[in-house]
Amino acid sequence: MSDHRHEDGPRRPGQVKEITSLANPIIKDIKALSVKKNREASGTFMAEGLKLVLDALETGWKIETLIYSKAGQGKPLVERAAARTIAAGGLVLEVSEKVLSSVTHRDNPQMVVGIFKSRWQSLFDIRPKPHETFVALDRVRDPGNLGTIIRTADAAGASGVILVGETTDPFALETVRATMGSIFSLPVTRATPHEFLKWQKSSGTNVIATHLKGAIDYRKADYKSRPVVLLMGNEQAGLPDDLAEAANVKVRIPQQGRADSLNLAVATGVVLFEARRHLLTLADIDG
Ligand code: SAM
Q1: How far is it, in rounded angstroms, from Cα 148 to Cα 168?
Q2: Residues in domain RNA 2-O ribose methyltransferase substrate binding (predicted)?
Q3: pLDDT of residue 6
Q4: Which fold has domain 123-286?
Q5: SS3 for 209?
Q6: Yes or no: is domain 4-117 CATH 3.40.50.2300?
Q7: Is the pLDDT assigned to residue 101 strictly greater than 50?
Q8: Ligand 1 atom closest to the CA of 231, numbered from 1
């Protein structure tokens, strides 16, 4: 028995359900999580990978179901995840590789999958503090872009991502995959454009909108004197006029070559790390 099993208490026989049939109703319910409406109704989502699942458990995310393939049987870290799931009142399933492939839509699935309770931060609970940076995304459509932005925002030390208007779901499997675990680190908020505009007025933030027609070079924006909201436009249409006009400043990233614009996630990364550079300089001076 590993130290961790000791810490969490041993798993007793009968606490793990074995499933080999694709027709099992529990598996059908889990597969249904590939549809947004079902994720919203259950308030749950799927995340793959043993390390990621353990990290999520350790940071207090509520697990409903842990699924592992037979290959994981007896592995200390899988046992640890199973014991924690049982301790949290969740269900543990040992399944065939075929079942795991069908749940994750992958030929070579990860050995472990967790079904977690989704979490949304309420917009009006966000009270930005000095030196904090948030990313606000207008109608982001592409799951890969959203996942990459959540991952990049996490890496750049941002405090949260605000999804404005009709957006792709941060808890979709493709998005969760692209976050590489950052979905568990960075709070995600959703808001209508009206709610966002109301919040920004009272938030005390400097809203920096990125725009192809921005008058200011992004390197000259003020990232220091107030908390920053970096506002990014939709992949196809860019920012609508109401959001762009309400921002404190519109910045552009000067480009060379023939491309009309940068990919949304790339543009977000460029400006986020510029903001970080300004803040780190300030920290160095203060320190
Ligand atoms: N056709 C769209 C337009 O007219 O804005 C292009 C949208 S671009 C793919 C997606 C978003 O990335 C833009 O709305 C903007 O927020 C940001 N972006 C991309 N390239 C940029 C640049 N060179 N300067 C400023 N923002 C940029």
Answers
A1: 13
A2: 46-122
A3: 41
A4: Alpha/beta knot (3.40.1280)
A5: strand
A6: no
A7: yes
A8: 16
